[in-house]
Design goal:
499 residues, alpha+beta, Nucleotidyltransferase, domain 5, 2 domains, seven-stranded mixed beta sheet, 23 strands, globular
Length: 499
């Protein structure tokens, strides 16, 4: 082993420090969860606690591996305001906070209609503060005195790069990640960035994910035992990072990645940026790939929906197991077409912003909160296996809509990775519902961290991404199709209730 690569992978739930060798084989991985810190009733990121843990794990890595580079990949919709002392001056608020309808109304009154902003920036109107421009608008209102001390407004990967190197930067995958801050038609900071008055706080020159931001500070070298020559790359947005192994193997177009987890993110690398008229106002958007190409994207909180609804069922039945795929049971539910599980538990987060989380059975509504409290349990939820089956069917239907809105074309291959990869029922139903597309499961369990490691190797070697394809293999396991012709009829009925 000539050298090792340290990857800091920051998810909303789990934080990870992984180490890869010079042939991109993972050598170690450490995980930690940091509960939110409550400040003024707001959930905020525990930046200080995370930094201490990252330093501790980097020090451990330095004892065992010849680490030559550090790279950072993070979840989206997060930024940090830094002051003259290089420390945060404003709490880093969770993007899941919902400031209310009046807040959203005032934002769009000041910065432009949602459809116009979507067309210019590639960003749809989410609820909560999933669009960072709204997060900036929020903290400017809540913490005006603190915000006034801001000298740098840094996207999340670049904030950590700044803490490690003392250098500031900006990078395309994060700038273009549903932020409202980048005009994708003109490739420059948007009118929203200028209207917020933060255009001078954000580095406008976009770097590449594999560009070297700098070398680690003397303080970090001393704390970790890493060489002062250890480089830190610019960093990358997590969803875009997970695309890189597929780009290396398949090229930059011709497939759709169904990345499943807390967020299910459907990404379709396309040749041209732009929305059709009927797409404006829908939860479809464009990411910017690491190669500055458009990635048509649709998302929903599939993992969160599965976890939350399944816990309700487990509580009702005092069970902890997840049943396997019983084809006859699914056929029965689809044929009867009388029970439907509807999104969205987090309103406005997915493909059906007008839908309310509930179960509809024989025309009767059962509200999620009442079901969770065991006050009004629908008949279908009195059977544990039926309840789980109904949940899986709902997730498949949400995936189908997301795939359509992301522009899935006939003949394109669909690759499913992440948490749903091992769910036979989900994958069989999804494949069967896509007769014109081959659906594959891949064996990349942690594509986000792996993609980030690829950028670190590119930084060290100056190799192109395609030149790294020989370092690894991806197993593509095709999902067989069964005769689920009833799914189409069931879906038509389900869609009637989505609002």
């Amino acid at each position: 082993m000539k050298y090792a690569l340290a990857v800091i992978d920051i998810g909303m739930t789990n934080k990870k420090v992984a180490v890869y060798d010079d042939t991109l084989h993972q050598l170690s991985a450490e995980y930690c969860n940091f509960p939110p810190e409550l400040i003024d009733g707001l959930e905020t990121h525990n930046l200080a606690g995370m930094e201490s843990w990252f330093i501790e794990k980097l020090a451990d890595a330095a004892k065992h591996f010849p680490v030559k580079a550090i790279t950072i990949t993070t979840h989206g919709a997060t930024f940090v305001c830094v002051g003259k002392d290089a420390k945060p001056v404003v709490p880093c608020v969770y993007y899941t906070y919902e400031p209310g309808e009046d807040f959203h109304r005032r934002f769009y009154e000041q910065f432009g209609a949602p459809e116009a902003l979507q067309q210019q920036t590639g960003t749809p109107a989410f609820k909560s503060m999933i669009n960072p421009a709204q997060g900036i608008f929020f903290i400017k209102e809540i913490y005006p005195e603190y915000f006034a001390k801001t000298t740098h407004l840094l996207w999340y990967p670049q904030y950590w790069g700044f803490r490690f190197t003392g250098k500031t930067g900006s990078e395309g995958t994060y700038m273009g990640c549903h932020t409202y801050m980048w005009n994708q038609l003109e490739n420059k900071l948007s009118s929203v960035a200028h209207g917020l008055g933060v255009d001078t706080l954000i580095p406008e020159q976009l770097g590449n994910s594999w560009d070297i931001l700098g070398t680690i500070t003397g303080v970090l070298a001393e704390k970790t035992g890493l060489s002062p020559d250890t480089i830190v790359t610019m960093g990358i947005h997590d969803s875009n990072s997970s695309l890189l192994p597929y780009f290396a193997k398949k090229g930059e177009i011709g497939f759709v990645l169904n990345s499943t987890g807390t967020w299910c993110v459907i990404m379709n690398p396309v040749k041209k940026y732009g929305f059709s008229e009927n797409e404006l106002g829908k939860v479809v958007f464009f990411n910017i790939s690491a190669f500055r190409k458009p990635v048509k994207t649709a998302i929903f909180l599939g993992g969160q929906e599965f976890e939350t609804w399944s816990k309700v069922l487990m509580n009702i039945h005092q069970r902890k197991d997840i049943p396997g795929y019983n084809a006859a049971l699914y056929f029965e539910i689809l044929k009867e077409s009388q029970a439907f599980l509807m999104p969205e538990l987090t309103p406005g987060s997915g493909q059906f912003p007008l839908s309310k989380a509930r179960i509809i059975e024989n025309g009767r509504n059962y509200i999620f909160a009442e079901i969770a409290d065991k006050n009004n349990i629908p008949p279908v939820f009195k059977d544990y296996e039926k309840g789980i089956a109904l949940l899986r069917i709902s997730l498949v239907l949400q995936t189908l809509t997301a795939l359509e809105r992301a522009g899935l074309e006939r003949g394109a291959e669909v690759f499913t990775e992440g948490g749903f990869r091992k769910d036979t029922a989900y994958n069989t139903l999804l494949s069967s519902a896509l007769p014109d597309n081959r659906v594959f499961l891949t064996d990349i369990a942690e594509a986000t961290a792996f993609g980030a490691a690829m950028t670190a190797k590119m930084a060290i070697t100056s190799e192109k991404l395609s030149e790294l394809a020989g370092d690894f293999d991806i197993e593509y396991k095709e999902v067989p199709k069964s005769d689920e012709s009833l799914l189409g009829n069931y879906r038509s009925n389900w869609l009637k209730y989505t609002g």
